[in-house]
Design a protein that fits this description.
This protein is mainly alpha-helical and about 110 residues long. The protein has helices spanning about 10-25, 35-50, 55-65, 75-90, 100-105. The chain is globular, with a radius of gyration of 15 Å.
């Protein structure tokens, strides 16, 4: 049995969510398939449900001011980067280069296709 593990900290949870958000966008096909819409729905749901209230309010405001483009994998991937950079700025962390090549390098294929 798995026992004694603690709930994630705000930082661990944030890291896990960003990993999910970026990998989800990065693993969409470049040619639109309709799946982009589902990825976008997830972003809107996170803006309503994210467990850290302060984070959720900031994120919801960002989504309202900068609605994600739900029809293009690359636009959505770049959008996730800009959203993350907003938090990085607030937390005085380094910014990430929001171009497709840098994002693919960090978040591209997970090797799970086969
Ligand atoms: P993270 O910021 O979690 O980043 C993980 C990895 O992503 C990095 O190692 C880097 O390789 C990569 N990365 C970094 N920036 C980018 C980018 N722009 N695009 C693509 N990849 C990138 N914390 C707060 O204190 N206040 C908040 O208001 C807040 N709001 C949040 C809102 C959301 C929706 C989420 C998911 C998280 C939020 N967090 C917030 C948590 C915060 O963003 C970090 O996740 C947390 O501080 C842990 O940071 P980390 O150093 O592990 O790296």
């Amino acid at each position: 049995l798995i026992q004694g593990e603690k709930p994630p900290t705000k930082e661990e949870m944030g890291n896990a969510y960003w990993t999910a958000i970026h990998t989800l966008a990065a693993n969409l096909q470049v040619e639109a398939t309709g799946a982009e819409e589902h990825a976008c729905n997830l972003i809107h749901a996170i803006a309503k449900l994210y467990p850290c209230l302060e984070c959720r309010e900031h994120f919801a405001q960002f989504v309202a001011d900068n609605p994600p483009n739900c029809s293009s994998r690359n636009e959505l991937l770049i959008w996730t980067c800009r959203a993350h950079n907003e938090v990085n700025k607030r937390n005085r962390k380094p910014l990430f280069a929001c171009d497709v090549s840098s994002l693919d390098g960090r978040w591209g294929s997970c090797g799970c296709e086969g």
